[in-house]
Amino acid sequence: MKHIEQQALAMNSPETYWQEQAELVAWYKKPQNILSTNSNSWHEWFADGELNSCYLALDIHVEQGRGSQTALVYDSPVTGKKQKFSYAELTSLVAKFADVLRAQGISKGDRVLIYMPMIPQAAIAMLACARLGAIHSVVFGGFAANELAVRINDAEPKVIVSASCGIEIAKVIPYKPLIDQAIEIANHKPSNCIIYQRPEAVASLVKPRDLDWQSQMDVAVEIPPVTVKSTDPLYILYTSGTTGKPKGVVRDNGGHAVAMLYSMKNIYGMKAGDTFWAASDVGWVVGHSYIIYGTLMAGCTTIVYEGKPIKTPDAGAFWRVCAEYKVNALFTAPTAFRAICKEDPDGDFIKDYDLSSLKRLFLAGERLDPATYHWLKDKTQLPVIDHWWQTETGWAIASTPLDDGNGNKIATKPGSAGFPIPGFNVQILNAQGQQVAAGKQGSVAIKLPLPPGCLATIYRDPERLTSGYLSTYPGYYMSGDGGYIDEDGYLFIMGRMDDVINVAGHRLSTGEMEEVLSAHPAVAECAVVGINDSLKGQVPLGLVVIKNGITISDTDLVSELKQSIRNDIGSIASLKDLLIIDRLPKTRSGKILRKTLRQMIDGQEIEIPSTIEDPAVIKELTDLLAPK
Predict the structure, then answer these.
(1) Are 37 and 15 in contact (CB under 8 A)?
(2) Could you identify which of 240, 247, 322, 550 might form a hypothetical disulfide with 522, taking C-beta atoms 3.0 to 4.6 angstroms apart as the criterion?
């Protein structure tokens, strides 16, 4: 079926469309009630269906005779360690760790907080929770104790699963002191902490609640998966909220399984036996969806990579992994490739590796600027597919289809996230909630119902689902992003709606200005933020990081960039100032912290998000950006 026909069917007959897609899942009890409404007036998918997500990710492949296939590759350039686990081996380990959790009183519906680095044990812990019907909440290893305490209080886990340490490029971070401090701060007290000991920093297990991972595994037995309802929660994943209190996005089991299998086949073009690498972290939604669940449910080989795009050891790290494990599709954030481009602008490292297995590159997490798109396409000669999604949706809202249904390739457009995925009825609305004309910018909203796999509720706070996403435009989910759909139906996401600035009555997109700046061959990455101005209300300020080996003087570069903005957008967008800096403050997923930059520049108290990659960059920029 052609993409346009699929979209029409999913829009006009969602129950028919998703009932057919649900056939991808090996249900214990096949659903008959496809779409319904729950007590919170929110839609539910496959409410009477029964399944187990761990079974779908592991056991079924062993049953189908593919137990010897590699399920998970662990590659850690920061420790020099590499490991491979077959589907049979991974199933056995997960079934045993499920017994370890069961021995600590964990059963269906209980919460387990997982505070782990990028090691195989993180995947084992997640899947073991799913096997028991327990609800996992993964928190980045190394998160500050206070942030960890906030999540402990909200999720109220019975057990915390962690490792003794995490390893960054040049330092070892002991986790146990952070966990102990967090539990001391928290009102809720987990009954046990299960710690996987790493040789780089062995934790002292002296408290009565502390248990050693391996000692527990040594006496565990393999237990089978339990049956859960489609609507039972699989996990809680916290995402930052405007109030400062993190939002616990809840994902169900059934809709999620359908979305994972559907997307692996239709968005990523993957089949059983392929190798799919999501170069992310299990702390992000990408890690949940496409390091763990989607990739394994599809019978692919997944990669858990404990390293960086650069400096572990160099800007060829990603290409080395792709060549070594014959990766068929790579999915990462644009910031990873901007870092690689900055270090290796001519793409010399690419020539060192055999990338013949690599078929496609997928990017998401933030907008893929046209300059990075063209650099990647030029240097790799591969399809570069930007796609757009959110923690709340759990999978892609928009992407460029693999083909038109007749085997013909569909062109990608630089700067565009492609077309809405069947099931996502994306519309561009003005302030009054009316659809705008093609090419005109507005608020990107999705007409309800959302397709399977999207958020089921906000944990402990269903009213926050309504107030945060549904009340602005009744009948629509508000994404919070601004953008437009062009005459050909391509969706362009221009950034968060709060990144639209008002200069002397003119509404300007900082995303458009960043596009102009990043097009300059000297620019590695950039950010434009609106700062307060007594005359014009707001004016744009540009911050630019330049590539290695650039010979143009800073003065000439600033002059050229300012002229480019005037030429491409107009004098009204003239930058108040443009600063060349060493690095931008970002989250671990690569999103630039524009709100933090605005607060710095305007002299406000800075709210530093818990997901920041390196807090030291804030200190570096504070003096530079302080109000003059």
Answers:
(1) no
(2) 550
pTM here is: 0.86
Over the stretch 11-21, which tens digit does the pLDDT of each residue have?
999 999 999 99
pLDDT band of 243, cuts 50, 70, 90:
very low
The domain segmentation of the chain, as residue ranges, is 504-625
Q: How many CA atoms lie within 13 A of 487 on its CB side?
A: 0
Name residue 221's amino acid.
V
Element (H, E) at 136: strand 135-140
CB atoms within 10 A of CB 231: 18
- The 10s digit of each residue's pLDDT in 84-133 is 999 999 999 999 999 999 999 999 999 999 999 999 999 999 999 999 99
Name which residue leads in pLDDT, 367 or 328.
328
Residue 104: both structure tokens together: 């600590």
pLDDT at 280 over 80: yes
d(CA 222, CA 244): 41
Q: Is the per-residue pLDDT at 625 higher than 90?
A: no
d(CA 494, CA 569): 15
CATH 3.30.300.30 fits 504-625, yes or no: yes
Q: In this predicted structure, what is the pLDDT of residue 504?
A: 56
Which residues have a Cβ under 8 Å from the Cβ of 385 and sit 6 or more positions away? 360, 361, 362, 363, 399, 400, 412, 418
Identify whether 615 is preceded by a cis peptide bond (ω within 30 of 0).
no
Pairing type for strands 396-399 and 419-420 reads antiparallel
* Rounded mean pLDDT, 584-597: 78
- Supply 83's token pair: 């490991």
CA separation for the pair 148, 151 (Å, rounded) = 5
Neighbours of 410 (CB within 10 A): 15
How far apart, in whole angstroms, are the C-alpha atoms of residue 89 and residue 301? 13
Find the helix or strand (DSSP H, E) in which 248 lies: strand 247-252
Side-chain half-sphere exposure of 346, counting CA atoms within 13 A: 5
Extract the tokens encoding 572.
């009204």
**CB count in 10 Å sphere of residue 271:** 12
Element (H, E) at 8: helix 3-12
Tokens of 537: 């209300």
How far CA 276 is from CA of 29, 70, 255, 340, 349, in Å, comes to 29, 12, 22, 20, 21
* CA separation for the pair 135, 111 (Å, rounded): 5
Contact 615, 596 (CB under 8 A): no
Percent of the chain past pLDDT 70, that is, above it, reads 95
Residues 437/419, Cβ–Cβ less than 8 Å: no
In angstroms, rounded to a whole number, what is the distance separating the alpha carbons of residues 592 and 570? Answer: 25
Using DSSP's 3-state secondary structure scheme, residue 253 falls into coil
Measure CA 65 to chain center. Answer: 32
What pLDDT sits at residue 99?
A: 98
Nearest to residue 531, comparing CAs of 483, 481, 594? 594
**Mean per-residue pLDDT, 508-518:** 83
- CA dist., res. 110 & res. 246, Å (int): 20
